[in-house]
Design goal:
Radius of gyration: 23 Å
Distance between the termini: 62 Å
Helix content: 25-40%
CATH topology of the largest domain: Nucleotidyltransferase, domain 5
Strand content: 15-25%
Largest sheet: 7 strands, mixed
Number of helices: 19
Shape: globular
Structural class: alpha+beta
Length: about 525
């Protein structure tokens, strides 16, 4: 084990440390710290409780302490940690961490990606640039509460003293990088384009910071943003104290790092055109590799850079596993039961359609949305028909946003717990009209380690492409691979039209087709 590389995934609920051996193409170490279970920060799902409606925050010290615990475990393992050549960090996107000149936190908690308390700030910024269209021209994205700009503005408005003391506004992975490179003892303060493009302050297409949006927040903000460095380079070496405490090589390089979606792409082999990654969790995401930037005129598809110097347009829907989990609970059925039950109703659910906006929705942007059951008769609310409706509704909702992306998927790679469901895999293949296959492995942490290996090799004379570095580690579950079934595709093409027309009618789109007429045509056949 001469050439080891480490990936860190600092997520909302846990921190994971993974080490790969590129000589044997194996993962040789994988450990994680669950904040709720393994630490004493009184969190639930990694979030401090009792801060008010819509507020989601954590103590950044929790993340660095978790990393200390993991380095300690690594030092006590059989893995020769002094052979680790480079480390890369995957961080939950959009979180804000603020430091003063000495490296002290100016705000004791970080607002996370799922903090929804900054709606007013989004509106004020949008008004300042005279509308959503101008905002998209400025930063490539509309302003959302999930993005970082609104979090900074909230601090400037409501905690002006803390904002004044702040000299550095970090994203989560930048803060971890600063800690790894020495922290208060000379830690490196930089950013990189992948995660930065999710701040809604910087345009991923033009590569320019928006002075208009920054000044709408504060004329002082530009001075608080660290320099932007390339994603495919290292930024420094491991801090002396960490190296000494845990037996790491002082020459170990720290990669620029990126957001969890960027490294989720690397960890699933989504590093060449035509591959789409779909993550099936409480929320759902779909993203793909592009060589040219894509800016969605509506602002619903997030315009991101990736971690390779290319681009990663991303769709996020708020509702996915929540509706599925709720129906399992309601009918007291298991995952296996669900797979059997949906087979009792044909694909297309005989014209019944569910709009699954159980908790509002991010894409499309309907924060006050609620579910809509369309085409259901009085006697149609049976277990079988509702299970089929939930399955198809969630996948159709994901597809309705995805269709805006300028990509024809040749293969969809699935991650998340629902990928073990035959019904989910087949329905995604049929509705997206592409082969779908689950990816086994460690996701963002693996992607981080692979990126560290690629960057280190590039900087030391290696000629391998990222695809060549990644391929030996990406394991596809071929037993679960699903090809689209032509008969199902035909039905779903009609159901997709019904779903999209209904969604648009609900949202007041004047040019929307008539969902009633489309459904009537569908059920004739």
């Amino acid at each position: 084990m001469k050439n080891l590389f480490a990936g860190i995934d600092s997520s909302t609920q846990s921190t994971k440390l993974l080490v790969i051996d590129t000589d044997s193409s194996k993962v040789v170490f994988s450990e994680s710290i669950n904040y709720d279970q393994d630490m004493n920060y009184s969190t639930q799902n990694g979030v401090i409780q009792g801060l008010g409606e819509g507020v989601s925050e954590s103590d950044p010290n929790m993340w660095t302490e978790a990393l200390d615990m993991l380095f300690d475990r690594l030092a006590k393992s059989d893995v020769p940690q002094n052979n680790i050549k480079a480390i890369s960090v995957s961080g939950q996107q959009h979180g804000l961490v603020t430091l003063d000149a000495a490296g002290n936190l100016t705000r004791p908690r970080s607002k996370l990606w799922n903090d929804f308390s900054t709606g007013e700030e989004c509106e004020l910024m949008t008004e300042a640039v005279h509308g959503v269209d101008n905002m998209i021209r400025e930063v490539g994205n509309s302003q959302r509460t999930g993005y970082t700009a609104a979090k900074i503005f909230h601090m400037a408005r409501h905690e002006p003293d803390a904002f004044t003391r702040t000299t550095t506004c970090f994203l989560v992975h930048n803060f971890i990088n600063w800690f790894l490179t020495g922290g208060k003892d000379g830690g490196v303060r930089v950013m990189e384009p992948g995660d930065t493009s999710g701040m809604a302050l910087w345009h991923p297409g033009t590569g320019e910071w928006s002075k208009r949006v920054m000044n709408a927040i504060s004329p002082e903000l530009a001075a608080k943003i660290p320099p932007l460095k390339p994603s495919d380079a290292t930024i420094g070496t491991i801090g002396a104290a960490l190296a000494a405490n845990y037996g790491l090589d002082p020459r170990c390089r720290i990669d620029a790092g990126s957001g969890d979606n960027m490294y989720g792409a690397v960890g699933t082999g989504n590093v060449v055109p035509g591959i789409v990654t779909v993550s099936l969790g409480t929320s759902g995401t779909a993203y793909t590799y592009l060589e040219e930037p894509y800016i969605d005129p509506s602002g619903e598809i997030a315009a991101f850079c990736d971690s390779t110097g290319n681009y990663l347009p991303l769709l996020c829907v708020s509702n996915l596993a929540n509706g599925y989990n709720a129906i399992l609970t309601e009918f007291k059925i298991s995952h296996k039961d669900f797979i059997k039950i949906v087979k009792d109703v044909p694909p297309g659910n005989e014209g019944r359609v569910l709009i699954p906006w159980y908790m509002g929705e991010r894409t499309p942007d309907v924060p006050q949305g609620s579910p809509v059951y369309f085409g259901f008769g009085i006697d149609d609310f049976s277990r079988e028909k509702l299970c089929r409706a939930v399955l198809e509704g969630h996948v159709l909702n994901l597809y309705a946003g995805f269709r805006k992306m300028p990509v024809k998927a040749r293969e969809i790679r699935l991650t998340g717990g629902l990928t073990q469901s035959d019904a989910w895999c087949q329905t995604i293949a049929d509705i997206f009209e592409a082969e779908a296959v689950p990816v086994e492995g460690e996701g963002a942490a693996l992607g981080a380690a692979l990126h560290a290996a690629w960057v280190y090799q590039k900087e030391n004379g290696g000629g391998k492409s990222l695809e060549q570095v990644v391929s030996p580690f990406v394991v596809l579950n071929e037993t679960m691979r699903k090809k689209p079934i032509p008969q199902n595709m035909s039905v779903y093409r009609e159901q997709k039209q019904v779903f999209i027309a209904l969604s648009e009618r609900i949202r007041g789109v004047q040019t929307a087709a008539d969902p009633f007429a489309l459904r009537a045509e569908m059920v004739k056949k």
